[in-house]
Amino acid sequence: MFFFFLGFFLLLTSIALFSKRHLLQPAVFAFYTMTSFILAIFQDSDWTPIFMFRYFFYIISAFVMLAVPFILAVLALLIIARSFKEEGQNRLQKLFNGLIASSFLVFVAFTLWGLSNRVHFEFARFISIYSLIALYFTATVIAYMLMNLILQFLPKAKEHEAVIILGTEIGDDGQVLNTLKRRLDRTVHYHRHLSKGQQEKVIYIVSGGLDNKADMTEADRMKAYLIQEGIPEVQILAEKQARNTSENFIYSKALLAKQGIQSRPLVITSLFHLLRSAYFADIHHLKADFLGATTAFYLWPYALVREYLAFLLISKEINYIFLIFIIINGITQVFRLS
User: Fold this and answer.
1) What is the pLDDT of residue 20?
2) CA-based radius of gyration for the chain
3) Those residues with Cβ within 8 angstroms of residue 83's Cβ, 6 or more apart along the chain or in another chain
4) Element counts in the chain: helices (H) and strands (E)
5) Residue 164 reports pLDDT greater than 90
6) Inter-residue contact 243 to 219 (CB < 8 Å)
7) Is the dihedral of CA 88, 106, 314, 302 positive or negative?
8) ∠318-284-38 over CA atoms, to 5°?
9) Per-residue model confidence as pLDDT tens digits over 231-278
10) pLDDT of residue 323
11) Confidence band, pLDDT 50/70/90 cuts, at residue 19
């Protein structure tokens, strides 16, 4: 029931944030709400299909569990290292990071001590806390995939005055690589399925700055590709300054304002990049619809892991607090049963 109430709390908070749009971002709360309910279902549901799937995910989590102590130790060291490097942190932030890092290190150290000294209570129950943490990480991966799919299929405006295509790396010779090609092909597909009257009205913003490997910007290469595929040059604006997703929205928003466009734009990027894109769009107060392009099957694992870890990084405070809640809840159960 612990995760049920936590999920219920996060759901209510998420609804409030979607309407008031302050404090933490809706994308973050929606993600951790989804994670909470997945954990609640796996732990508390007696529904037969869930009962069957539960053990499948327990098996997955058992493999993850072997890496959990190392993950917690590395997280703690990264938190400490970032605290020393980031000059903008105030004392409260440094104190928070120090407490989180210390908690992780103490928990891992206590585990190693217990294993080496065979403490008096049933230590296997204590180790089961790692299984719970592993299940949490499994749930976050599932939640991340589901949230991207939800963004993909959410109702969108019937017509858009502007479409923003987010760039990604290009080849050394300026060649459009597979991931970017799929985003551009998705844009071309969208353009071709508009009515003729609407086709002539849409402004396409290709966003991406200079790639260190190439002599031309991502935006220039994207613009050339779209022109080659039949989209008129006059309808394409190149945003050549952005170096990351956050800057994609900063500079694209400025272009929208310059064009006098106030309606919601459509943002086209890769499917597993949708949630992180929604986060940065909200950070920069840009209301938008989102459409994802597919990813090549051989790039799928890398794309998922990369974007998943990047999202955990930008929501790290809630992630750390969630882990601490799990550890405290697990320790409480262990000593209650001892």
Assistant:
1) 45
2) 23
3) 89, 93, 94, 97, 98, 101
4) 13, 5
5) yes
6) no
7) positive
8) 35
9) 999 999 999 999 999 999 999 999 999 999 999 999 999 999 999 999
10) 81
11) very low
Q: What is the pLDDT of residues 51-78, one digit of tens each?
A: 666 666 666 666 667 777 888 888 888 8
Q: Which two tokens stand for residue 19?
A: 């309407």
Residue 113 and residue 101: Cα distance in Å, rounded? 18
User: Buried b / exposed e across 63-74, counting CB within 10 Å, b at 16+?
Assistant: ebbeebbebbbe
Q: Give the pairing type, strands 162-166 and 203-207.
A: parallel
Angle at 210 between CA 207 and CA 214, to 5 degrees: 125
325: which residues sit within 8 A by CB, 6+ positions away? 6
Q: For 21-67, where are the alpha helices, taking DSSP H only?
A: 26-44, 48-65
* Residue reference for tokens 């790396």: 169
- The average confidence (pLDDT) of the chain is 82
C-alpha angle 288-31-5 in degrees, rounded to nearest 5:
135
Positive/negative CA dihedral, 58, 60, 65, 71: negative
From 236, 217, 205, 235, select the one nearest 176 (Cα to Cα): 217
Q: Which residue has the tokens 């296997």?
A: 124
Beta sheet of 203-207, edge-to-edge order: 236-239, 203-207, 162-166, 266-270, 289-293
pLDDT tier, 184 (very low <50, low <70, confident <90, very high otherwise): very high
Q: Cβ distance 150 to 247 under 8 Å? A: no
Instruction: Write a three-state SS string for 200-262.
Output: CCCEEEEECCECCCCCCEHHHHHHHHHHHCCCCHHHEEEECCCCCHHHHHHHHHHHHHHCCCC
CA 160, 163, 165 angle in degrees (round to 5)?
160
What DSSP state is assigned to residue 165?
A: E
Please report the pLDDT score of residue 242 as a whole number.
94
Instruction: Name residue 67's amino acid.
Output: A
Query: pTM of the entire structure?
Result: 0.83
Mean pLDDT of 156-170: 94
